Amino acid sequence: MKESDAYPHLLKRIWLEKLFSERMCRHFNEDFGLTTRVARFHNVYGPLGTYDGGREKAPAAICRKVIEGELYGKKEIVIWGDGHQTRSFMYIDDCIKGILDIMYSNIEEPINLGSAEMVSINQLVDYVEEIAKHKLERKYDPDAPKGVRGRNSENTLIRKYLDWEPSIH
What we know:
39% of the residues lie in helices and 14% in strands. By secondary structure, it is an alpha/beta fold.
């Protein structure tokens, strides 16, 4: 998703909150000379991220489900939706590097900070099962929340300004 594509999503509360914050940063800069930077994060994950409770990111949820399968002898994994929905995931180390680079730059507009690589939920399960060496039967729950069909970070601007983009998979 490109930075300029954010405004059609105004009907969603979370997008409205984010865009309002971005506008406030811009106005603090214009009205009071306060330098601000805005990075739009895309699915940050890492070792201290939420692991359970329903608010975790897909990598943590999938890891937990595969580990539980191995530890407790479960034979199947429940996947929300059909497993073909895609996301991009950014490891926390890339996020921190990106934040620092953006903060010390002259970038004045909101900029995406995320991976451009799209990974389906089925691919994510494949990766985790391969690492764990534990295969589970997949059961799909089409009625569970699944979010948008696909989204990743469009990184033209970050490559232009910083000659860099997140790369850890």
